[in-house]
Design a protein that fits this description.
Blueprint lengths: L2 H11 L4 H6 L1 H12 L22 E2 L3 E2 L14 H11 L7 H16 L3 H11 L10
Antiparallel strand pairs: 1-2
């Protein structure tokens, strides 16, 4: 899904939140780039917020820049599921909100269409609703 398509899709579903969507354009750019395993275009770089206190530092004094490649999997790297969680947080959907699982499943479907099967599976695992407990025991 192209970055513009992601924004248009989101606005179509949430037209009452135009200002919030505009404020979240950087996050949408990061999420779309992570889903497509691509770099964020230079024209969108200014929309990115600096490193948050609760997130990884963008620069490590001993090793230089810290990569934010969403598919690296090593310490200090953030996955596509991490970025998706940030998007849900920015949208005001708390951890227990069932919309997180629903939207994650939709994103996973789109990610699979981009032949990023492992990433899609990670997203599905991360946001899967909890299994109901069996009371028949």
């Amino acid at each position: 899904m192209a970055r513009g398509s992601a924004v248009v899709w989101w606005l179509a579903k949430n037209d009452e939140h135009v200002e919030k969507t505009v404020a979240d354009l950087g996050l949408l750019a990061q999420l779309t780039s992570a889903a497509n395993d691509s770099d964020i275009p230079e024209r969108l770089q200014e929309l990115l917020s600096p490193s948050r206190p609760d997130g990884p530092d963008e620069f490590d004094e001993t090793d230089g820049p810290v990569s934010t490649d969403a598919f690296g999997g090593s310490p200090g790297h953030r996955s596509a599921a991490d970025h998706l969680s940030d998007l849900f947080d920015a949208m005001g959907f708390p951890e227990e909100d069932p919309r997180r699982a629903m939207l994650a499943a939709q994103f996973a479907h789109i990610i699979k269409e981009q032949n990023r099967y492992e990433t899609a599976e990670e997203v599905l695992r991360r946001f899967a609703p909890p299994e109901p407990e069996d009371d028949a025991a």
